[in-house]
Amino acid sequence: MSLALWPATASEQAAHIDGLFTGLLVVTGLILLLVAGLLLLFCIRYRRGTQAKRGDLPEFLRRDVELGWTAATLFLALFLFWWAGTLELRASMAPPEALEIHVVAKQWMWKARHPNGAREIDALHVPRGEAVRLVMTSQDVIHSFYVPAFRVKQDVLPGRFTEMWFRPTRTGEYRLFCAEFCGTQHSRMGGMVTVMEPEDYASWAAAQPQEQDLPGEGEALFTALGCAGCHAPASAVHAPVLQGVYGRMVHLADGRTVRADQAYLRDSILQPQRDVVAGYAPIMPSFAGLVDEADLQRLVAYLQSLRGEAAR
Ligand code: HEC
Ligand SMILES: [Cu+2]
After folding, report:
1. How far is the CA of 64 from the centre of ligand 1 (A)?
2. Which of residues 115 and 34 earns the better pLDDT score?
3. Which domains occur in the chain, in start order?
4. Mean pLDDT of 88-104
5. Separation of CA 45 from chain center
6. Which atom of ligand 1 is nearest to the CA of 264?
7. Ligand lying nearest the CA atom of residue 276
């Protein structure tokens, strides 16, 4: 049994975070020892009645000591900043080949959806050794996806996608918590993350009831909601062709240029008047209230899948 206060270490990130934590503990511990040691030493040496020499230090010593400790703490602080900063950056950038799993939070459950369409609730199966990227959103209030064994935690917000990634390193079952108070059943909002060997994960995913994939459902919605009426290449309406829209730089009517990421696509559907594409009339109606979170994810997944054919 390991020390119960220290959670299992089951992801690459967890090992790095533990390293940083231990490093900070050692550095602050050494400083504590140094300060407490000097304090004790001076208390004894300069106690009332001793013959120890008192009075000002010689000028050169005063300057050297001052310069020395200022420089030393500066470099120490910069080093700690660099260490924690690189970890933070790594944690924010998922490798491009990462497995993308969509997560929707609602009072009071976690719903996950795998690339092949497999769904699960309050459970998440992931392959060991592979990067996993979670694209998350909430249907109601703010929740927070927290897996202590992976040392990852990310708020999940309504009306927005937040992302998080990890690379599990050990098979097993690990607790998933909601770490943001979200209502009366908050404390029960959680589940299990199961890390499996990649081949076990593959057979698990294949054994789940097969449904249409996310982009496929998005495509159906795209037609059902009338998007295609304006955006189909043959349409009589002057609207942008959406092939390859994901990731391209879009010039807007107000002169700004933005990258069409997931947030942009989402806003295009909910608030089309906000970022009007240059050269087009602001005629696209808002679909806010008409599509719910799950539908938005489907639509955005469909738009993302429209790669290939190059932009105009
Ligand atoms: C009435 C016609 C019309 C309908 C219906 C419509 N759009 Fe649009 N859409 C436009 C026009 C015109 C623009 C360009 C002006 C703008 O950005 O508002 C646009 C812009 C967009 C953009 C940004 C494109 C770019 O190149 O950056 C996206 C994404 C988009 N629409 C998706 C959709 C989706 C998804 C639906 C259905 C839920 C939809 N549209 C329904 C007319 C329409
Ligand atoms: Cu919650």
Report:
1. 67
2. 34
3. 12-92 (no CATH), 99-207 (2.60.40.420), 214-305 (1.10.760.10)
4. 89
5. 54
6. 29
7. 1
